[in-house]
Amino acid sequence: MMRRLLRIFASLAFAVAPICAQSQSPPAHAAGSYSISGVVVSALTGQPLDRVVVTLQNAMGESLVGQTETGSDGRFIFEHLRAGKFALSASRRGYIGMAYDEHEGYSTAIVTGEGLNTDRLTFRLRPRAVIRGFVSDDTGDPVQDARVSLYRIDMGSGLGNIVRAGNTTTDDTGAYEFPHLDAGNYYIAVTANPWYATRPQPRHDAEGNVLPDDQRSPLDVAYPTTFYADVTDSDSATPIPVKAGDQVQVNLILHAVAAVHLSVQLGLPPGRGFVMPQLTQEIFGVSEPAQTGMAYNWGIREPQGNSGQSESELGQTTVELSGVAPGHYSVELHGGGDSNRSAVIEAASDTHIDFSQAAGMADVSGKMVMDSGDKLPERLNISLRSSDGRFGGSDRVNDDGTFAIQGVPPGSYEIWVNAPDKSLAITHLTASGAPADGNTVKIGTASVVLNAGLVQGSATLTGFATRDGKPASGVMILLVPRNPAADRELFRRDQSDSDGSFQLNRVVPGQYTLVAIEDGWTLDWARPEVIAHYLPKGTKIIVPAQAKDYPVKDRIEVQAK
Predict the structure, then answer these.
(1) Which of 382, 275, 247, 384 is nearest to 339 (CA)?
(2) Which residues, at least 6 apart from 4, have a Cβ–Cβ distance to it below 8 Å?
(3) Residue 380 in contact with residue 419, Cβ under 8 Å?
(4) Where are the alpha helices (DSSP H) in 435-536?
(5) Same domain? 219 vs 189
(6) Range of the domain at 27
(7) Are residues 230 and 379 in the same domain?
(8) Which residue from 518, 494, 477, 551 is spatially nearest to 2, judged by alpha carbons?
(9) What is the CA radius of gyration of the chain?
(10) Residue 137 pairs with which residues in a beta bridge?
């Protein structure tokens, strides 16, 4: 059964109310002859845990059935229950509050009924982990107010992307801490500005050109973005493995280097107005704003007699960026229409960027319709995302289905659509101005027009997973579309409940393969080359159009990871 973490934390709010050693008297609607009982243990040591608040709710986590607190033996019990599905969760100071057998927001519901054993459960609660450390400079002095970013490998998308997991700043001793961490593989990045750094003002000649700085201050320095362990490129960063309950010390040293200055000629025609260029760097495949400590200065280049400047150069704005650490950057200018420009630079030394010569960015527009002819859902949104997590832009789709996204950097993007409380998929996509393959469009510098047909997923697919002929609890259930590479938005996941049952919601009509994988939560299951291993033993499913309830007749046999 799928349970969102928000509901788990909401359920823990009941912990502030008075609780007793046994479950509270059940509401009248819960009275019955079944029980749910077991023991809460540390996932790290296996030892029973006392003072654990155990909460029982209905299957959707919407109403409280009972609540209790474990004693020294770690045991809990809920009695007088009717046949049905229940959500079980637990919390204790120093441990991760979680649902029963939770994985990535999915958990196993406890199903009571004739012939079902719901006693002697083992609830493994994971102790919190901590990453802490110090940030210092190469003289050993602490770096105060450094921005420390935490990243982790996320399997929620099935691609093993690295995503941001938190931010903090160092105190006056250079210390930082990330508490309340679950087990996983993490990365750390630090950005800061040397407190003693100077940012000299650029000097210009009569024509507005920047004059060479022959006497650069030795204090004109910057810290490059630094990753553990002591590298300045995220591709070379070292992962930090963290197990449940770990106390990991990670110290980082920042090395001041001579700063570079960037002179950016915007290339906007006279009268277009001033637009600040955006300097970004790629961190784990995602564009992030460049490090702090930069200074911006700008001026308008005016005609100076018979200077020999072309008309297009006159009246243009030049922006000087100082305090930039050497490195690989992207510079983007969103001036609107054909003035959108982007440039990739390797800033090893002072660099001049002429945006009139830079590559343009594309405008992406188009129209969407429902294949059924129905009205489009309210608050429909379209977004462009690359497989590695880069964001290309988004727009709210108008009532007539039209949309427009301006200033999209060149690259390959998947087209995603979403609306509140709806499950939507693109059935066909055509593109002019760019090649398209399935739902992926390779965008260059030319304008692109898209036309897409949408279908809404409304089928509820139910079934049972078995292991050697017996109900299989807590396994990953995965519905795989016929074309996994092109239709990633059609995947559906769930975790089997204590009786082996599962439910996949908002399934889009089409052809699928249904698989159950033991401990499949660490797989890159969205990668075609990975999931292909499990498809031959899966169950073929065809979900017809307009289907609402779709029970799977055959039991799904669990496959080993």
Answers:
(1) 275
(2) 105
(3) yes
(4) 528-531
(5) yes
(6) 5-125
(7) no
(8) 494
(9) 29
(10) 254
216 backbone dihedrals φ, ψ, rounded to 5°: -65, 130
pLDDT in tens, 109-168: 999 999 999 999 999 999 999 999 999 999 999 999 999 999 999 888 898 889 999 999
What is the phi/psi pair of residue 400, to 5°? -85, 5
CA 325 to each of CA 188, 253, 256, 445: distance values in angstroms, whole numbers, following the listed order: 19, 16, 9, 29
Helix (H) or strand (E) holding 9: helix 5-12
Give CA–CA dist 259/347, Å, rounded.
10
How many domains does the chain contain in total?
A: 4
Task: Check whether residue 156 and residue 296 sit in a common domain.
Answer: yes
Query: Which residues on adjacent β-strands are paired with residue 266?
Result: none
Do 23 and 108 sit in the same domain of this protein? yes
- The residue from 326, 359, 392 where one domain ends is 359
Q: What are all long-range contacts of 206-213, with beta carbons under 8 Å and residues at least 24 apart?
A: 206/304, 207/301, 207/304, 207/307, 207/309, 208/299, 208/300, 208/301, 208/302, 208/304, 208/318, 210/263, 210/318, 210/320, 213/261
**CATH number (domain holding residue 446):** 2.60.40.10
- 3-state SS assignment for residue 536: helix
pLDDT single digits (tens) 64-95: 999 999 999 999 999 999 999 999 999 999 99
Q: Burial-class residue 73 by CB neighbours within 10 Å (0-12, 13-18, 19+).
A: exposed
Mean pLDDT of 432-452: 90
**Is 534 in the same domain as 489?**
yes
Answer positive or negative: Cα dihedral of 300, 306, 308, 310.
positive
